[in-house]
Amino acid sequence: MQSEILKNLFLFICGIAAASLGYLIKRKIERRSQHESLELDLKVLSIRKELNQQNVSPEELVKLKEMLLKKKTNTYKDLSVIEPLIRKSNERIITQAEINELAFNEYDKATITLNHVLQELYNKIHGERRKEHEQAQNAWLEYMKKQAEYTSNEYKGGSIQSSVYAFEAIRIIKQRTEEIIELNKDLDIR
């Protein structure tokens, strides 16, 4: 009986110790979140002070953020072009020079594909009809160059400009290739 009382007393003391330890841990966690909250508040105050010193309002900062995000999303409209480079990089840093090289390799591939599809078309049409299409193709080529130049000029002078040009050109070339493929299919049906 006495051993049972000692056992119950021991369990009671262990319960009190565990509850006390749990309470202390909870308090420590609460203080840490309060401390983190205070650090965050201090950082916000420091940023506000710097903004005030530079005469920049938080609204202007939000506008700048939105502008930068918009510019970022417009930079590479079709990221599938650089996926092989990303996979190949194996978590190493990818340089702009590598992106530029990949962009122009993909540009060359897209151009070769378009030229192949065009050759198939020109084997099917002759005479005046072929001349008309060649003129249309030359006009399209001018459009493609101007559009890619226009898009990339947003980054004029930057290291990204040439890859933006190439990616925009690739996008347009792929569209044109699809159009010519459809035209070839229509001619096959006739």
Note down, in words, how this protein is organized.
This protein has 190 residues and is mostly helical. It has 2 domains: 55 residues; 112 residues, Substrate Binding Domain Of Dnak, Chain:A, Domain 2 (Up-down Bundle). Helices cover 84% and strands 0% of the residues. The chain has 6 helices and no strands. The mean pLDDT is 79.
List the helices and strands and how they pair.
Elements: H1 2-53, H2 58-75, H3 83-89, H4 96-122, H5 127-152, H6 161-189
Helix pairs in contact: 4-6, 5-6
Give me a quick take on this structure.
With 190 residues, the protein is mostly helical.
Largest sheet: none
Q: End-to-end distance, in Å? A: 105 Å
- Percent range of helical residues: over 70%
The helix/strand order is HHHHHH
The low-pLDDT segments are: none
Could you please say which CATH topology of the largest domain applies here? Substrate Binding Domain Of Dnak, Chain:A, Domain 2
Based on the structure, what is the oligomeric state of the protein chains? Answer: single chain
Tell me which CATH architecture of the largest domain applies here: Up-down Bundle
Integer tally of domains: 2
What class do helices, strands and sheet pairing give?
mainly alpha
Overall residue-averaged pLDDT value = 79
User: What is the CATH C-level name of the largest domain?
Assistant: Mainly Alpha
Gyration radius (Cα, Å) is 33 Å
Report the sheet-strand fraction: under 5%
**Which shape, going by the Cα principal axes?**
elongated
Q: Can you count the helices?
A: 6
- According to DSSP, the number of beta strands is 0
